Amino acid sequence: MIYFSFHKFIKKFNKVFLIFSLLIFWGCAPSLKVPEVSKEIVEAERLKQRKIALFTYFERNEKLNNVWYKLLIGATPFCEKNLSPVYGFEVHNKKMYKEEDIKLLSEKYLLDEKFTIWYVHPDLPAAKAGLQVNDKILKINSKEPKNIEEFLEIIKNSKEIGLVIERGGEILDFKIQPIKGCNYQVYLIFDESINAWAAPSGKVFVTTGLIRFLHSEKELAFVLGHELAHHVLGHITKKMANVILGSVIDILIAATTGINTQGAFQQLGALVFSKEFEKEADYIGTYIAARGGYDISDAAEFWRRIAVEFPHTIAEIFLATHPSTPERFVFIEKTIQEIEEIKQRGEPLLPSQEFMKKQKEREIEESN
Question: In which band, very low, low, confident or very high, does the pLDDT at 269 lie, cut at 50, 70 and 90?
């Protein structure tokens, strides 16, 4: 009887709770009459925004390539053991995109099963030979590459390239002689952070947040020069070696004492010489930007703007991986002064002979 009464109480309580909940939600319902929109109109706007996003990404990539190619060529004295032919064009095909994006991109670009050109640097061999955006590549060095890896491999291993192009129904032949540049690649990624970094396998990543933050092409050259400097100075390899050494110490301590360091020495290894690496990259990166043809006279101002957006970078922090913004500003100002003095003397735009000698010794050591 007690169970029956309790069971009836629960049923009544549930009904009251349900009615009370409905009254609350009904009482909080919107009261304004707003315009109705159809799913079709929303879908049309979605596609329009998708198209704007795609084309903006391509425009930003063009800006990136415009600077990057100049720096690869300007940096050649620093990477003589890691050079590749530079033609100054980029290709794509249908296989690289989603079906929806193909339809949108087709409003501006010719997309085909074969590779077509989407970018040509205005000052480099491809443009001088007459290549244009939307040229369809029928053959390269008498071959029809099956994928982008095969296409790039042909370019990398050729002293010159012969292209058979289709343009507006006309078949054209081109012979293009490359110039030499450092063998590194740049990639634009969707990310809100203001950041760029050098990664293993010769890659540099740049965020869309950074592209929006930068005021000019020369600021972009300054940032990219810094990241390129990390590669030509061998910092990526050195950092990885320091991390591995730290991991070995963690393992040895665990094996001999039973204490789990939780990767403390691995993390410490990542910090070893980190500030010094950053200073070196600032130094050589400024030279690379100058050698790429950019006016670096006010390059250091970039760090004042960084300080405005990220005030914590102004202070010196123990075990910080980067120098403070005041330190970087003053250091780069001094580097700029050094470069200007070299220009005034009419000497080759290179750091000291001692530095270049050490750089060549490092390249020889790594190649062995």
Answer: very low
